[in-house]
Every structure is written in structure tokens, then in C-alpha cells.
Design brief:
With 417 residues, the protein is an alpha+beta fold. Helices cover 58% and strands 16% of the residues. The chain contains 15 helices and 9 strands. Helix 1 packs antiparallel against helix 7 and helix 2 runs antiparallel to helix 3.
Length: 417
């Protein structure tokens, strides 16, 4: 079974807040009913209005949850808890059950608020306790309580048992919801990791992260299992140090590879390159890599990339180049989309007069075409790249290196891949 889990922490907190308001409102109904009965039978009528205000506030916050902003609901709940804590203590002293709400206040503040806010509120709560304690010890508060009657009355015990049990259950429910959410997140993360690992293990190549630290050292924080096929090395050996991988790079390609990495790190540009690896079992193989860098906050550079084995392709390309280079009467050239020359075989050298070193990287208006002809040629390249059509055979007038004009018969087509 595949688990889908999209709830983030903010959504979880919002849902838990609404549940807490609902649970608190439900717990307050019997609690207030018992308190009202206790007030009527035992006394302490000033508490009656407080009980009704607390009950009304909790239900108003829950019923208005769709309209009242998140932080307004949090501070409303904290205000209810603060009032429940210290109004009771101010009238009943240490006999009041306000300590339960002090604990709830701290838990709710830390759970639903961020940064330093909850700690300032908890400090304010402690200061309120201190002030009430000082006022009581100085005689500024009068507690007119018939303690024997209060302690032996069944309503007092019923109220105490209900409050302690109900609010303990609320704390347990909040904790249970959080644990269930964490378990669901962990299960989803495991399934996702397993799925990604299976995908990575079946990709014909290596998925990797490459980290270049500011001090010049490097490692692979992540490499897929395909690393064993590429490097003949346990992936775990590369996580702490990239040196074993660089040690396998062909000496003729190592400097170019390092320069490519340095340029990508400097400019934060995608890095694409091919190089040879000296595989412990397979010998020399060709590898092509693609990676995208990002700068980390500490100044290190992290690439996310993919490597694949292109040995067979390079062998085929080499065979094709050898064939074309040794075809005496067929001039073959390769061009990019902008008309720059990528390949110029020996027959092209003999026909036009320019060597491959002179021709590579140039456009045809620098060699055999006029500016107008070269512009038309680029339009043709663009058209065949989009449509795949073949242009020609057709005759073209050209200028040879010695300055004379000649006519050639040419065909232009795209080379897939």
C-alpha cells in the first residue's frame, strides 16, 4: 500500500488547535455545571460569572474557527487558561485547581506559538503566580473558606476528579495525535525513500550529489547503487571523501574535469562533461555527467547530478569518425544549430582547402560562403531541426581557399541524438 501524506506542520498545528478548543469546550460543560452546583450549594458566588465566561469563550473560539485567525484563536485560548488559573487562585488560594491550567498554558504556548513568544508568556505566567503569592502572604488577599466543609463535600471531589481527568485526557489526546502524525510521516518518508532507492537502482547510470567544500575537499553525500558499476567501489567509501573516485579518472582527463567543476562552482552554471574512468575490472570506460550546482549557506557548493556510461556510444562515434575521415571523395561536415562547424573530415580538407584545425568552430561565411549564403544556410539548419526534413541533393556555389569559385552537390539533414 502506498501512503499519501501531504499535511505540513502548520496544518497539523491548526487542526490540533481546533481539536483542543473542541475538547476543552466539551470538558468545560460538565466542569462548569459541577462548579455552578458547588457555588450554589457551598458558596463563592463570584466564581459563577467566571465559569460562564470561560465556557462561552471556548465555544465561541471553536465555532468561529473558520473566521478567526490562527494566532487570535491561540491567544484567546491562552487568555482563557490564564483567567482560569489566576481568578480561582485569587479567590480560593492554593486550594484552587489553577495549577492544572498553568501547566496547560505552558504546553499550549510552546505547541502553538513560534520563536520566543511562548517563553515570554510562560515567564509572564510565572510572574503572575509570584504576584498572587506575594499578595497572599502580605494579607492583601482574603480567603474566606470553610475548608472542612469544602474538603469533605462530594461536589468538591467530583469537580476535582473531573477537571484532573478531563484535562489529563486532553493532554494525552494532543500527544497521541502528534505521535500518530509523526508515525505517519515516518512511514511515508520510509516508503518514499524506498521508492526513490528502487528507481535510482534501476536507472541506467548513477544519481548523485557532489559536495565541494570551501577548503577544496570534496565528497559525495549521496550516490545510488549504480556507483559500484561505474567505479567498482562501494558507495559508502565515497560519502566521506571523493578522492577514490577522482583517483580512477584518466590522467589525460583529470585536469579538464577539475576545471569544469571549478567553473561551474564559480559561475553556478550547469555542468556537463564526458571523461574516461579506469575501471578496476572493465578497464577504460567513457562516462558522461550532467549536474546543477547550488550554493549552500556556509559557502560550500552542492551539485545534484546524473552520470551514465557512454562507452558504446563513444566507440560507435569513433568508428564513424574513422570511417568518415578516411572516405576520400565524400566531404562530410557536422554543424550545430547556429551553423558552427563541429566536424570536418579529410575529404573536406582536400575539397575546400582548409584543414580541420582551421575550420572547426567557424561558420561557413568565414570559409566557403558569402554572408548571405551563410544566413540562408542557418535558416535551413533551423528548419530541418524543427521538421526533420532533408534538403537536397542541391547545387551550391562556393568559394575555395585559393579564391576560385566552384559548384558542389550537397545534401543537408539532421543527425538524431
Amino acid at each position: 500500500m502506498v501512503t499519501t501524506f501531504t499535511e505540513d506542520f502548520a496544518s497539523l498545528r491548526n487542526r490540533l488547535l481546533d481539536d483542543t478548543l473542541l475538547w476543552g469546550g466539551m470538558a468545560a460543560v460538565p466542569g462548569v455545571a459541577i462548579s455552578v452546583a458547588r457555588v450554589i450549594i457551598i458558596g463563592w458566588r463570584p466564581l459563577l460569572l467566571l465559569h460562564l465566561l470561560v465556557l462561552g469563550a471556548l465555544w465561541a473560539l471553536w465555532l468561529g474557527r473558520a473566521r478567526i485567525p490562527y494566532h487570535a484563536r491561540v491567544y484567546g485560548l491562552l487568555s482563557v487558561l490564564w483567567l482560569s488559573s489566576f481568578a480561582g487562585m485569587a479567590q480560593l488560594g492554593p486550594l484552587a485547581l489553577g495549577g492544572v491550567f498553568v501547566i496547560l498554558f505552558a504546553f499550549i504556548a510552546v505547541l502553538f506559538l513560534d520563536g520566543r513568544q511562548p517563553w515570554w508568556l510562560i515567564a509572564g505566567n510565572a510572574l503572575s503566580l509570584i504576584l498572587i503569592g506575594v499578595a497572599a502572604t502580605l494579607g492583601w488577599l482574603a480567603f474566606d473558606i470553610d475548608y472542612p466543609r469544602y474538603a469533605h463535600h462530594p461536589l468538591t471531589w467530583l469537580h476535582t476528579i473531573w477537571n484532573l481527568t478531563a484535562y489529563a485526557v486532553i493532554l494525552a489526546l494532543i500527544g497521541w495525535r502528534m505521535v500518530q502524525n509523526l508515525l505517519m510521516s515516518e512511514r511515508y518518508a520510509r516508503e518514499l525513500a524506498t521508492r526513490q532507492r528502487k528507481i535510482a537502482d534501476h536507472v541506467p547510470g548513477v544519481i548523485y550529489q557532489f559536495l565541494l567544500r570551501r577548503d577544496g575537499s570534496a565528497c559525495f553525500p549521496y550516490v545510488s547503487e549504480g556507483t559500484l558499476r561505474f567505479f567498482g567501489t562501494d558507495p559508502e567509501l565515497l560519502i566521506g571523501d571523493a578522492a577514490p573516485a577522482f583517483a580512477l579518472v584518466h590522467p589525460h582527463d583529470l585536469a579538464r574535469l577539475r576545471q569544469s567543476i571549478a567553473a561551474s562552482a564559480r559561475d553556478l552554471t550547469p555542468d556537463q562533461d564526458s571523461f574516461r574512468l579506469l575501471h578496476p575490472q572493465r578497464g577504460s570506460i567513457w562516462v558522461e555527467r550532467f549536474s546543477t550546482p547550488e550554493r549552500l549557506p556556509n559557502g560550500d557548493t552542492l551539485w545534484h547530478g546524473f552520470m551514465r556510461d557512454i562507452t558504446e556510444r563513444r566507440i560507435a562515434e569513433q568508428r564513424l569518425e574513422n570511417t568518415l575521415a578516411n572516405t576520400p571523395n565524400v566531404a562530410v561536415q557536422w554543424y550545430d544549430r547556429e551553423g558552427y562547424i563541429l566536424y570536418w573530415n579529410h575529404a573536406s580538407e582536400r575539397m575546400y582547402g582548409w584543414t580541420d584545425e582551421e575550420a572547426l568552430g567557424k561558420t561557413l561565411d568565414q570559409l566557403i560562403y558569402t554572408v548571405e549564403q551563410a544566413a540562408q544556410f542557418r535558416d535551413e539548419l533551423d528548419r530541418i531541426a524543427k521538421t526533420g526534413e532533408i534538403i537536397g541533393p542541391a547545387e551550391y556555389e562556393i568559394r575555395l581557399r585559393n579564391g576560385s569559385l566552384a559548384w558542389i552537390n550537397a545534401t543537408i539533414f539532421t543527425n538524431p541524438g
